[in-house]
Structure prediction request, 107 residues.
Amino acid sequence: MSIHLTASAAERVKTFIASRGKGLGLRLGVRKTGCSGFAYVVNYADEAQPDDRVFEDRGVKVFVDPESLPLVEGTTVDFVRQGLNEAFRFSNPNVRGECGCGESFSV
Prediction:
């Protein structure tokens, strides 16, 4: 399996990395939190860690740590704008439930 990016997400990552002048790609992970158990952590990767799993889609590298990989494998990352708000959104086949506020998920 792998991590996929929509055209919108890939363009956002490329544009942001170009504007900040550095970066290898997107870092995707999870942390324990919230009422449902896990929340996504999204950052820009400036360096690869030795145990990272690296995926590439639409010309963008996505770095995932080994602890997060079983929870996010197969996820599609999208970038959406709604009015003044913009955010990455995730379509994760591993998710079995989400909290009511949408901030956390369970597997």
Remarks:
- The mean pLDDT is 89.
- The chain has one domain: 4-106.
- Helices lie at 7-20, 69-72.
